[in-house]
Amino acid sequence: MVPMNASETSPQANVSVRMQRIRVVSQIAKVMVGIVLCFNVGFSLFFARWSSSQLLTPHGALMLAYHVVTLVWFWQWFQLFREYERGRIFAADTIRHIKILGALWVIGWMVLTMAHFVNVPAPAPAITANAAGQLPNGSQAVMVSHHTYRFGFFNFDFGTGIDLGGLLAGTVIVLIAWIMDEGRKIKEEQELTV
Amino acid sequence: MNENAIPPKKSNARLNRIKTASRIIRLLNIFFFIVGATMFIEMLLGWTFFFPGRRIVISDNHIYRLATEMPSAIFALWLVKNILGLVCMVVFNFLFRLYEQGILFSAKNILYLRFLGYGLIINWAIDYQLQSSLHDMDLSATPVFAGLLIIFIAWIMDEGRKIKEEQELTV
């Protein structure tokens, strides 16, 4: 009588356990993101005070655009977790959702940056000239330029006033998704190779 | 001969593309690491060789010329933040070195990804602590979401890798 290998089915059982774990965590994450998305949509529709005068300004229009990008971003999160819940870990659609998340991050950063510069008014001069272009007695016009370069490891600008850390985060996410996609295609092609 | 067989050239081209992109990113990372480390050392020691006009910016209303001007608690947090940043850049370099070697889904890749995700979140926590102790908050929650997304992707990749290994063991 040949003894049965007790561990023969263990790897398969482990696979099922892992897949189940992914499904459960993804389901919980999907529900949480769904709640946040519904809250955001509900808040925008019923509580946010959008007046047409606000929306007609460049800043107002950009903030509305940023709000829309945020909603689409949460929707993509929802769809990503739905794919994981279905057990589609490295499918093309799943990786596409990650790429879109990264791209939306970059778009949101661009919109927010534009809104920031539209909103920041030009500094008013402390001393103003009269109608003839003459300064008050005893005052002298002096030009002062001040440059600030911020350099931290996760947030940095180079005298632009723009935090480039957000752009970096979005780009890295898109890059990682692209590498995952290329890896998936390599694996598919290797399976087809004789 | 299987007419549907994909020649290995296409796979090699993909892998070469990944390797080239990873090399470029790694070189950029090394450049910024050198700049960042130089600036950090200058700020720490009060030197002004390469960045004469530099200031240490904790928040918009708390800017210091020298590290010694900072209160000790703020200085300690600033030191930890910068060392964390340097370490994360080193780990980023290791990750893309693996991609450059064509190693895409190993346990090490996932470890480095996870480290970077946690690094983003810890950095945000340090910023929060710094700015709240100075009562000067101007913080975005974006890095926390980025960190959580990266950690989640790393976990999924790890589970996928283990599933693949276990399927290979199945008789």
In short:
Chain A is mainly alpha-helical.
Distance between the termini of chain A: 39 Å
Number of domains of chain B: 1
- Derived from helix and strand composition plus strand pairing, the structural class of chain A reads mainly alpha
Major β-sheet of chain A, in short?
A: none
Q: Report the average pLDDT across residues of chain B.
A: 81
Radius of gyration of chain B: 21 Å
Number of strands of chain A: 0
Largest β sheet strand count, sense and barrel closure of chain B: 2 strands, antiparallel
- How many individual β-strands of chain B? 2
The level of helicity of chain B is over 70%
Structural class of chain B: mainly alpha
The overall number of domains of chain A is 1
Share of residues in strands of chain B: under 5%
Order of helices and strands of chain B: HEEHHH
Query: What is the rounded Rg of chain A?
Result: 27 Å
Describe this structure in words.
- The complex is a heterodimer of chains A (194) and B (171).
- Chain A is an all-alpha fold and 194 residues long.
- Chain A has one domain.
- Helix content of chain A is 64%, strand content 0%.
- In chain A, helix 1 packs antiparallel against helix 3, helix 3 (58-85) packs antiparallel against helix 4 and helix 4 runs antiparallel to helix 5 (165-192).
- The longest helix of chain A is centred in the first third of the chain and has 37 residues, at 10-46.
- Residues 1-8 and 147-151 of chain A have low confidence and may be disordered.
- Chain B has 171 residues and is mainly alpha-helical.
- Chain B has one domain (8-169).
- Chain B is built from 4 helices and 2 strands; from the N terminus they run H-E-E-H-H-H.
- Chain B has helices at 8-45, 72-100, 107-133, 142-169, and strands at 56-59, 62-64.
- In chain B, strands 1-2 form a two-stranded antiparallel sheet.
- In chain B, helix 1 packs antiparallel against helix 2, helix 2 (72-100) packs antiparallel against helix 3 and helix 3 (107-133) packs antiparallel against helix 4.
- The interface between A and B is large, with 43 and 56 residues.
